[in-house]
Specification:
heterodimer; A: mainly alpha; Non-ribosomal Peptide Synthetase Peptidyl Carrier Protein, Chain A; B: 228 residues; alpha/beta; Rossmann fold; seven-stranded mixed β-sheet; two-stranded antiparallel ribbon
Chain lengths: 94, 228
């Protein structure tokens, strides 16, 4: 698994969208079209709790971050923008 | 191609046959496949069989035993242990006269010491972490407060049901410290060698013919004396 360090905004965006496409089996172009308001948890039928767990575990591996229980809330998972802001904050906070 | 194999009788349970999917034509090369576990077993089942079909066409016998307590097994999953599964796979390897092993994901934790490959090997702690996380997220959705820490403690003390799989305390505790170890003659085959994302990541079971082609080709190449 590639651990990406020092990802800037655009690289993180690309990585995060690629990761969502991998986990949900989406067409990469469909994931690349996500905007900040694109709905995730509760909007994509593929994204059930098991898939969310897979997504978070994959984020840990590929981004080199640790995600705690308390980090996981509705806001972070509801939209692509929320997930991106969370990943950015985690990477910046290391 | 459906057959059975007989694991060593566990304490207090009668010896019974477990399912074996076999492409067995009595050839010289005989590959034991140690399957992925739990939810990943379902996601990877078709992929696993597809790789076996390709190897069969390439002249390799393939043998896929059920782990006791999993898939078609009648044994209770809650009674299974890591040592028991390791002993079971070793018995299967011996009785089926396997010459090589392909261990998939957490299957690497119970692979017998034959030459072979660990495909995208997964550690015990990571296996538990993913399942615990799915449970805490589902609990939160249902308005229940469950923490990973409390669940880990419960798992160690009394066992835990994660994603519908009832893991007994002995297996749970053993998994907390279980790391895949390559035996002599074994090598890692990483997902990156297959040119696509691992199918265990998918929310639904899926297949990928190109990935199955590549995994089978790597094994055939390695059996022919090329680099793994």
């Amino acid at each position: 698994m590639t651990v990406s360090h020092n990802l800037d905004g655009a690289a993180l965006d690309l990585e995060l969208k690629g990761l969502i496409a991998d986990v949900l089996g989406l067409d990469p172009e469909q994931a690349q079209a996500f905007g900040p308001d694109s709905g995730l948890f509760g909007h994509l039928p593929e994204l059930d709790s098991m898939a969310v767990a897979g997504l978070l575990t994959e984020m840990e591996d590929r981004l080199g971050i640790v995600i705690e229980d308390d980090d996981v809330d509705g806001e972070m998972l509801e939209t692509y923008g929320g997930l991106f802001a969370f990943a950015e904050a985690k990477l910046g906070g290391r | 191609m459906l057959s059975t194999w007989t694991p060593p009788a566990a304490e207090g349970t009668p010896a019974g046959g477990e399912l074996l999917v076999a492409f067995d034509r009595g050839r010289k090369l005989r590959l034991l496949v140690c399957p992925a576990w739990f939810d990943e077993a379902n996601k990877l089942r078709r992929f696993t069989i597809e790789v076996m079909r390709r190897l069969d066409r390439a002249g390799v016998d393939c043998l896929l035993p059920d782990l006791p307590g999993c898939n078609e097994s009648l044994a209770p999953l809650a009674d299974q242990t890591l040592e028991g599964w390791g002993a079971g796979m070793a018995t299967a390897a011996e009785s089926l006269r396997a010459t090589h092993v392909l261990a998939i994901r957490a299957g690497a934790l119970v692979a017998p010491a034959l030459p072979g490959w660990h495909y995208a090997a997964q550690s015990g702690p990571k296996t538990l972490r993913g399942m615990i996380r799915a449970r805490t997220i589902a609990a939160r959705e249902a308005g229940l407060a469950e923490t990973s820490e409390a669940l880990m403690a419960e798992g160690r003390a009394a066992g835990l049901t994660l994603g519908g799989w009832t893991i007994g305390p002995a297996l749970f505790a053993a998994l907390e410290g279980a790391e895949p170890v390559l035996a002599p003659g074994q090598s890692d085959l990483a997902q990156s060698a297959l040119g696509g994302p691992g199918l265990w990541l998918r929310a639904e079971p899926d297949e990928d013919a190109a990935q199955a082609d590549r995994l089978a080709a790597r094994i055939v190449q390695s059996l022919a004396g090329g680099p793994a």
